[in-house]
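Structure (tokenized):
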């Protein structure tokens, strides 16, 4: 009988989970429980193509875990909880403490709680998820997989901000980078594909959140997200890098609080800030209808991707084994990929293979592949990311 591993993603009022069969890394079931702590708590589990759903008041994450377990057993997805041999928890921030995944013990849990100032929106829910699983399965190995860990190899030149140095020494203000699990997964896929470990890559993870990482010799050298995921590229709802003076300027001009400004930069900026839509598919629909702000948002979004690729191309002295397009937007949207590749064709000598590009992504059988032709100086690949499989691998 195959062993089963659980991947847990705890949110402030939600718990997402996936059950994997090992060693084949087969996803058996996937589910979510939402609105924990309210009268409207509900859940859904996808298993064998069917949806198992329910609703009742769930007081806290511990209640949520109990529901998850009873549904898994009731629907014969597992026979009993002891079948679960390992649990991987997605954790946003490992600060400077964790450069790799770690087995959770009291110290690790205390560290995660202590890093709440760096992940105030995520850590409380993640800690609640860990505690609830520990209560339910006290003897099962639980591993914390940090979104920041893969980027701990960045050089000081790349992670120190040019602000008073004391902000770093006293308060740990620095670039940390995120989406590390995805960037690591893609790096591993490319190491296998290219048959060497010391790969130089530019990985463009562009979904609702977006970050680009510069990989040198198989390690993260630089990345676009910073102290928080707000930095770097223009995203669905996040501004990406802006002049920090804008924040005080808007507070002074409008009288809104700092918290509200930060909320605006995280939730109502990016594509949404410019054209009112954050889902890239909606933005494209508006562009086709002739909406000029949607076209502006599209162009600014695309430019921010191109500028980061160009920056990292120079950072690697042009020694780039491959550029990779991944996550929701770049895995699926052929037109945006085509425009980016064409824009890079002069400076980077990349040449699109239009036919292949047009056949990868949503609505096509192919989900991955090389989208440049053999004469291209730098190959560009589309590779679907899989953060959950990466978490499962980190457990074992
Ligand atoms: P996250 O994991 O950050 O929530 P994803 O990687 O799932 O994000 O990407 C989600 C985004 O991908 C959506 O907001 C949507 O804009 C975009 N997307 C998904 N499918 C397509 C598609 N067929 N064409 C264009 N964009 C798409």
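Design, position by position:
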């Amino acid at each position: 009988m195959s062993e089963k591993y659980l991947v847990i993603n705890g949110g402030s009022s939600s718990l997402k989970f996936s059950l994997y069969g090992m060693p084949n890394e087969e996803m058996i079931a996937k589910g979510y429980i939402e609105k924990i702590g309210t009268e409207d708590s509900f859940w859904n589990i996808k298993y064998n193509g069917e949806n198992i759903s329910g609703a009742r008041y769930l007081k806290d994450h511990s209640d949520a875990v109990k529901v998850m377990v009873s549904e898994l057993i009731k629907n014969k997805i597992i026979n009993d909880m002891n079948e679960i041999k390992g649990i991987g928890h997605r954790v946003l921030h490992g600060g400077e403490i964790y450069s790799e995944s770690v087995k959770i013990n009291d110290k690790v849990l205390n560290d995660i709680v202590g890093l709440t100032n760096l992940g105030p929106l995520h850590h409380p829910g993640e800690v609640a998820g860990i505690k609830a699983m520990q209560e339910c399965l006290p003897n099962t190995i639980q591993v914390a997989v940090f979104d920041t860990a893969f980027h701990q190899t960045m050089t000081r030149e790349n992670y120190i901000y040019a602000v008073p140095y004391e902000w770093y020494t006293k308060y740990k203000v620095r670039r940390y980078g995120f989406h590390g699990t995805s960037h690591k997964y893609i790096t591993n896929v490319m190491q296998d594909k290219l048959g060497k470990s010391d790969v130089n890559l530019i990985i463009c993870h562009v979904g609702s959140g977006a970050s680009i990482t510069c990989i040198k010799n198989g390690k993260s050298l630089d990345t676009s997200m910073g102290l928080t995921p707000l930095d770097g590229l223009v995203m669905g709802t996040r501004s990406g890098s802006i002049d920090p003076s804008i924040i005080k300027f808007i507070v002074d001009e409008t009288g809104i609080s700092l918290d509200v400004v930060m909320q605006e930069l995280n939730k109502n900026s990016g594509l949404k800030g410019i054209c009112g839509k954050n889902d890239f598919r909606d933005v494209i629909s508006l562009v086709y209808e002739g909406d000029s702000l949607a076209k502006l948002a599209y162009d600014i979004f695309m430019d921010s991707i191109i500028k980061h690729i160009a920056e990292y191309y120079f950072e690697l002295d042009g020694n780039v084994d491959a550029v990779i397009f991944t996550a929701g937007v770049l895995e699926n949207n052929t037109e945006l990929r085509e425009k980016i590749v064409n824009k890079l064709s002069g400076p980077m000598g990349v040449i699109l293979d239009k036919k292949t590009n047009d056949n990868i992504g949503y609505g096509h059988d192919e989900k991955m592949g090389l989208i440049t032709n053999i004469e291209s100086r730098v190959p560009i690949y589309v590779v679907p990311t899989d953060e959950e499989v990466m978490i499962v691998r980190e457990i074992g």
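Reviewer-requested clarification: The chain is about 40% helix and 20% strand. The two ends are 17 Å apart (CA to CA).
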